[in-house]
Design goal:
By secondary structure, the protein is α+β, with helices and mostly antiparallel strands.
């Protein structure tokens, strides 16, 4: 499989960061073939974890969904109707959650992660994108017909024509585009994002979706890796090539923010009302406004992928088992992870960090700090 199209949540760095991705199969098989149940599923590549009331849910390779009802002491694999790589999971409340995966998979649960139903796949997403762009091209063409000397409209028409051609080719290629992240404001309003500038929006809990990627200033269709919100209600999207977008109107419109780094960003977190951007080769930046960014020197150069949720320190996870912690967001120390497996996500619970990554599930007692 083309490594670009086998992106996991941390996108372009995936082939370097994590090994052992699912072997290539026909797309239709992956989207419709149930995941195999395995006694070693907790050791498989897992990419994200989320809390669902008193439950925990982790997702990853070959359609694996792991669920714990005893706060991480024991885990059970859930049956799923798909076997694609799962990249992200999010819960709006104890019952309602969503996950994303390769081949444009978007699935939902209404029972806390016990069962999952497919809501969207890459073929449907390709059609949504094409229809939206074709409609936009028609609108621009109509305006240009009345103003044939308008250079700005001519440029817009040229750009949208290229995007329509690209979307048409994607339809012919099939359901290959990966969804990399999902985020919901509540049980009804959410976004899914991923490779090649893909952005989707729902206002009915995921029953229907609209293509939203044309709202971003991203003419090269760079990958979108993660979404986050700050305490003021601003939404952010981070991606490759230094991409950072911000919305001040619940995601209806987006502005592109200049960043001091042109490599990939894989996550954003907020700590003590400061925003932190993390990415390749240990690049870390902070901002109190979300508009201007200053570098933070951690003393380490391992790629940073995400932050631990639910802890009173800034705790960052990354390549090679990297765990960095800081009490003030400025001075960092490394925590021993016990292995060099890359860590992709985690949360804090009952005096421990529950982490997921290349080695599967891992619990690290905070007393090890």
């Amino acid at each position: 499989m083309d490594p670009i199209r086998s992106l996991i949540r941390f996108c372009m760095a995936a082939a370097v960061l994590l090994a052992g991705s699912v072997a290539a199969q026909p797309v239709a098989d992956r989207l419709n073939t149930p995941a195999l149940l395995s006694s070693r599923a907790d050791q498989a590549l897992l990419l994200d974890i989320a809390a669902s009331g008193n439950q925990l849910v982790a997702v990853g390779d070959q359609g694996i969904v792991m669920r714990s009802i005893d706060q991480g002491r024991s885990w059970q694999q859930q049956q799923t109707p798909f076997s694609v790589m799962l990249t992200s999971v999010f819960f709006a409340d104890a019952e309602h959650g969503w996950l994303t995966g390769h081949d444009g998979l978007l699935a939902a649960t209404s029972d806390g992660g016990v069962s999952w139903r497919t809501m969207l796949d890459g073929n449907q997403i390709n059609q949504l994108r094409l229809q939206t762009l074709q409609q936009k091209m028609t609108e621009i063409q109509t305006r240009f017909d009345t103003e044939p000397d308008n250079d700005l409209l001519a440029e817009e028409l040229d750009t949208i024509s290229w995007l329509v051609a690209d979307a048409t080719a994607a339809v012919d290629d099939g359901a290959g585009v990966p969804l990399l992240n999902i985020w919901f404001a509540d049980s009804q309003h959410g976004f899914a994002l991923g490779g090649y500038g893909l952005l989707l929006k729902t206002e009915d809990g995921g029953d229907s979706w609209v293509y939203w990627g044309d709202r971003l200033e991203n003419p090269d269709n760079f990958h979108l890796n993660a979404m986050a919100a700050d305490h003021q209600g601003h939404l952010y999207i981070v991606g490759e090539a230094g991409l950072l977008f911000r919305s001040e109107d619940d995601g209806d419109s987006w502005s592109r923010i200049d960043t001091p780094y042109d490599g990939s960003f894989f996550g954003m977190t907020e700590f003590n009302k400061q925003l932190y951007l993390m990415g390749l080769r240990g690049h870390l930046y902070r901002s109190d406004s979300g508009l201007e960014w200053l570098p933070v020197e951690t003393g380490f150069d391992a790629t940073l992928l995400s932050a631990v949720e639910g802890v009173d320190k800034l705790v960052l996870l990354g390549q090679g088992g990297m765990i960095l912690q800081s009490p003030d967001g400025q001075h960092f120390s490394q925590l021993p992870s016990g292995a060099r497996h890359s860590l992709s996500a985690g949360l804090a619970l009952n005096g421990a960090y529950i982490l997921v990554g290349e080695g599967g599930l891992q619990t690290l007692e905070m007393s090890h700090e």
